[in-house]
Amino acid sequence: MKLAEIAQGITAHLKRFEADPIINKMNEKYKTSPFYWPSACDSGPRIFVSYVSYQGHSSLKKAEALSYLEWLDAGNVGRHYEALRWMCEECWAWNDASDEHVCHQCERPKHDHNTRPQGAAEGAGAEGDERSGG
Ligand SMILES: [Zn+2]
């Protein structure tokens, strides 16, 4: 998938969010909306995404932008911050996309929990793993 196509896909989702009064609910106190003339455009090797036109851009690498688009295509609503961060299943700390492999808090590898033997979570909370394969 080309960068321009990824940018177009992200833009389409963002414009849909902007047009949705439930998603794009105005903050009564500050009179701001989470999405205002949002856009994503490709420039060089990166994609620049803007959720509020007067607040500047975030730049995403292609892999990040693609992950974000896939996350949006899966029906999620939000900005790339929500899409790209991940929660450590050991200590429940939120990690940025930059903490790609290791939790910044407990320093355990991201997928360490996958190696835990089954049945070891006795007495733990019944948090289901909602992740679905593609
Ligand atoms: Zn952790």
Task: Report on this structure.
By secondary structure, the chain is of the alpha+beta class. It folds into two domains: 3-83, no CATH class; 85-117, no CATH class. The chain has three helices and five strands; from the N terminus they run H-E-E-E-H-H-E-E. A hairpin with a 6-residue loop joins strand 4 and strand 5. Helix 1 (3-19) packs across helix 2. It is globular, with a radius of gyration of 17 Å. Zinc ion is lined by residues 88, 90-91, 93, 103, 105-106, 108.
The shape, in one word, is globular
Indicate the proportion of strand residues: 5-15%
Q: Which quaternary structure do these chains form?
A: single chain
Q: Roughly how many Å is the radius of gyration?
A: 17 Å
Quick one: how many beta strands?
Answer: 5
In terms of structural class, how would the helical and strand content be classed?
alpha+beta
Low-confidence stretches: 113-128
Ligand names? zinc ion
Total number of distinct structural domains: 2
* Strands ordered across the widest β-sheet: 1-2-3
Task: State the distance separating the first and last CA atoms.
Answer: 17 Å
Question: Average pLDDT across residues?
Answer: 84
Order of helices and strands: HEEEHHEE
Portion in helices: 25-40%
Q: Give the number of helices.
A: 3
Largest sheet: 3 strands, antiparallel
